[in-house]
Amino acid sequence: MYEKIIVPTDGSDLSLVGLKEGLKAAKIYDIPALAVYVLTPDTMSGMAAHRFDDVGKETMDILREHRKKEGKKVLEKVQKMADKLGVELKTTIE
Description:
Layout: E1 5-9, H1 13-29, E2 33-37, H2 41-45, H3 57-85, E3 89-93
């Protein structure tokens, strides 16, 4: 039926609720899951995309690295959830 469950997360409480349900489904169907933490321009800076011209490249690089670190922490938490359920999980930051 299914081959893999893909679940996006941004670390918010609401996304973690959805993630838990995805991991439960992976457990039920005995399939692996993939947790994806997506870096988008507006999540990297907290600003609307049209304001990027006002921000220098160096600042954007710093913000992107900060968000990557946040993403790694979130995905570590997700990995612990998957391990507890006995679900095979791969993670990625895009």
